[in-house]
Amino acid sequence: MVAPNCDADLIAGALQLGLQVMPGFATATEAFAAIRAGARLLKLFPAVSYGPRHLQALRAVLPAEVHVYPVGGIGASDVPSWLGVGAAGFGFGSELFRPEYSLAEIERRAQLLVGAFRQALQRLDSAAAAP
Q1: What is the pLDDT of residues 21-33, one digit of tens each?
Q2: CA gyration radius for the chain?
Q3: pTM for the whole thing?
Q4: Calpha distance 14→38 (Å, rounded)
């Protein structure tokens, strides 16, 4: 269950049904409310409004087992900076799909996003392995 907001009752109900939940949040208060309700995957939305430094500050206080996925306004060129501050992955909307896009255009955009993600992961792995 993916939501644009943090609703504790919805989170609890979805978890009782055995669903995975990913509520949206913007502030630390909302993030901790979602965690208190049982969420371990969080959607930072709209990510473009906050930027990677916001996530970096949040990662300093959020539990390590909680994964944050920036969503909203993220493009291929943004992936490295978000991964560098602790993003667990991403959600892509209009960067990937719009009704006017052809299937070939959607495929091209998906390949760009996946390529950017893989390159950024390789850079992070190389940096972590360096003495």
Answers
A1: 999 999 999 999 9
A2: 16
A3: 0.91
A4: 10
